């Protein structure tokens, strides 16, 4: 019966008859039988074939079976080949021991019992076959283990790479989150300070309004006493400085009233050269790096000049021994995701660079806070940079500070680009150009008695008749009862009904009646009263401001007496 995986069996004997008999006995094992008539021939067959079992005759010429076995065992390749001795002469136990010492695994005497020989050969053939199968299985297993090991190593390397990438992303996201939280905290802090300063500025403006109005009228009524005039002038200057201080507070709080227009930066800087030179003094050298082909910016020209002056004065104070102040302006294109938080689009970067003492990171972090200053007591208000910061934010731009101790400071003011105007802006009318008009009857609405009395006195000094109301409800009653009213001036921050709400009612009932909104808040909430297009009078205002707005807003024809819009 043929084996599925036959092995080679080498039959070694110098007698052909015996070889034939072995072939007959072992033929039905299904193995491959190879014959050799001498030891030399047997060695040749061993070199050519993978032999599982060698059946060796002990007594042979030239080399006997024991010597052949010893030679086979000396070769590393044949250490596991089964050697079976067959002998008709050497049959003693000593002979058997010699055979085993030569490397034999069995010793079969002659005459051979066919079934015994067949059984012995079958055992060692099967053992060889299973050993080879096991070796193949081990090799296959090692190959698979190698492949799995390589795959695991590749997976491990990939996992390590993914872990590194994940750690990098986590670190980046953590950093971004920390930055976002810091920015949020800063925004909340600035917003809180802004609300506080905005409220303080509003109340302070009302107080200054009463002071300025009364001081102005008192100065007009004083005689030729030069001492009294000088004292009044000083009081007026102090009140005006207080008004300027509130404007800076409102600028930081982003609640100042801005009149944005297309401003040519090169022209604005050129117009400030003399003023900057006088303000900075001879020790500071001023350099300019400004292109004349810059697009205009959308900003309030007066506030932008004030911002540039504040930055220049800060740089001067940082260079007590003198130095170089460089003013630069360049066009910038901001992409989406700007770290400055700017909307994508075109901007102009106005930069002020000095060679002064510089600032550390802690100082930079607080530099834009109101009332924060490093100049010492009495040497600065701490509102200059905060005003610039507020102007930038309210104009849709941003402020950036770069500085190092001992290496100077660079402050960049980013302002949105504006469309270049087709024609020149009209000249603002001076007070002398205004037709103040004839005497009018004016309804003055304000819940603050001090402000109301002062404003009424200024109006009466201008020759107008004044009717006062301390609430919007009272004012509506007066409008209904007194059709001779030609003009309405109303505060905004009033209880029950605000000035804007009151103005909407008045505009609906008396569409031709001029209304002016006077308020200590320089900026109303977004969209509030925008549809009314109310002229504004920012507190504190002077008598000339009051006269100007009345002249600009009066209608040629008076309101029809007793007639309402809904009638």
Walk me through the structure.
The chain is of the alpha/beta class. β3, α3 and β4 form a beta-alpha-beta unit. The chain has four domains: 105 residues, Response regulator (Rossmann fold, 3-Layer(aba) Sandwich); 118 residues, no CATH class; 156 residues, Histidine kinase-like ATPase, C-terminal domain (Heat Shock Protein 90), CATH 3.30.565.10; 123 residues, Rossmann fold. The chain has 15 helices and 17 strands. The chain is rod-shaped and about 165 Å long. The termini are far apart.
Q: How would you characterize the largest beta sheet?
A: 5 strands, parallel
Mean of all residue-level pLDDT scores: 80
Low-pLDDT stretches are: 377-382, 422-436, 556-567
Number of separate strands: 17
Structural class of the secondary elements? alpha/beta
Tally of DSSP helical segments: 15
CATH homologous superfamily title of the largest domain = Histidine kinase-like ATPase, C-terminal domain
The residue fraction in helices comes out at 40-55%
Q: What do we call the CATH topology of the largest domain?
A: Heat Shock Protein 90
Oligomer: single chain
User: What would the principal axes of the Cα set say about the shape?
Assistant: rod-shaped
Q: State the strand order across the main sheet.
A: 2-1-3-4-5
Our count of domains comes out at 4
The proportion of residues in beta strands is 15-25%
Please name the CATH architecture of the largest domain: 2-Layer Sandwich
Radius of gyration: 54 Å
CA-CA gap between termini: 126 Å
* CATH level-1 class of the largest domain: Alpha Beta
């Amino acid at each position: 019966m043929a084996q599925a995986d036959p092995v080679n069996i080498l039959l070694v004997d110098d007698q052909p008859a015996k070889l034939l008999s072995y072939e007959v006995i072992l033929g039905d094992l299904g193995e491959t039988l190879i014959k050799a008539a001498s030891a030399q021939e047997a060695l040749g067959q061993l070199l050519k074939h993978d032999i599982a079992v060698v059946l060796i005759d002990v007594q042979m010429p030239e080399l006997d079976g024991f010597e052949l076995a010893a030679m086979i065992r000396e070769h590393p390749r044949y250490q596991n080949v089964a050697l079976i001795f067959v002998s008709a002469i050497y049959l003693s136990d000593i002979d058997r021991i010699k055979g085993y010492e030569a490397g034999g695994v069995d010793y079969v005497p002659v005459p051979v019992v066919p079934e015994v020989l067949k059984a012995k050969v079958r055992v060692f053939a099967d053992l060889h076959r299973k050993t080879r199968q096991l070796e193949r299985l081990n090799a296959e297993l090692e190959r698979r283990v190698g492949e799995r090991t390589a795959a695991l190593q590749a997976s491990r390397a990939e996992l390590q790479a993914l872990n590194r990438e994940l750690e990098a992303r986590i670190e980046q996201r953590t950093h971004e989150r920390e930055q976002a939280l810091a920015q949020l905290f800063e925004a909340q802090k600035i917003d809180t300070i802004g609300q506080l300063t905005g409220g303080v500025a509003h109340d302070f403006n009302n107080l200054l309004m009463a002071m300025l109005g009364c001081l102005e009228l008192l100065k007009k009524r004083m005689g030729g006493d030069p001492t009294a005039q000088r004292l009044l002038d000083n009081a007026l200057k102090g009140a005006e400085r207080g008004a300027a201080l509130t404007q800076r507070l409102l600028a930081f709080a982003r609640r100042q009233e801005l009149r944005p227009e297309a401003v040519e930066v090169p022209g604005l800087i050129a117009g400030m050269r003399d003023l900057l030179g006088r303000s900075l003094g001879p020790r500071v050298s001023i350099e300019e790096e400004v292109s004349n082909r810059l697009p205009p910016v959308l900003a309030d020209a007066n506030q932008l000049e004030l911002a540039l002056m504040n930055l220049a004065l800060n740089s001067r104070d940082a260079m007590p021994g003198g130095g170089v102040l460089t003013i630069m302006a360049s066009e910038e294109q901001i992409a989406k995701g700007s770290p400055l938080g700017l909307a994508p689009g075109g901007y102009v970067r106005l930069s002020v660079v000095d060679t002064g003492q510089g600032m550390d990171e802690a100082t930079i972090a607080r530099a834009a806070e109101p009332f924060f200053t490093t100049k010492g007591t009495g040497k600065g208000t701490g509102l200059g940079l905060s005003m610039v910061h507020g102007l930038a934010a309210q104009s849709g731009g941003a402020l950036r500070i770069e500085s190092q101790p001992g290496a100077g400071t660079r402050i960049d003011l980013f302002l949105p680009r504006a469309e270049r105007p087709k024609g020149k802006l009209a000249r603002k009318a001076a007070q002398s150009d205004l037709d103040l008009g004839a005497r009018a009857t004016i309804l003055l609405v304000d819940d603050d008695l001090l402000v109301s009395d002062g404003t009424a006195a200024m109006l009466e000094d201008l020759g107008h008749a004044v009717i006062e109301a301390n609430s919007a409800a009272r004012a509506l009653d007066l409008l209904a009862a007194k059709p001779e009213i030609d003009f309405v001036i109303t505060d905004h921050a009033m209880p029950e009904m605000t000035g804007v709400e009151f103005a909407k009612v008045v505009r609906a009932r008396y569409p031709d009646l001029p209304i002016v909104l006077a308020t200590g808040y320089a900026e109303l909430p977004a969209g509030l009263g925008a549809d009314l297009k109310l002229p504004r009078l920012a507190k504190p205002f002077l008598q000339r401001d009051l006269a100007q707005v009345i002249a600009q807003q009066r209608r040629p024809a008076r309101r029809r007496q007793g007639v309402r819009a809904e009638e």
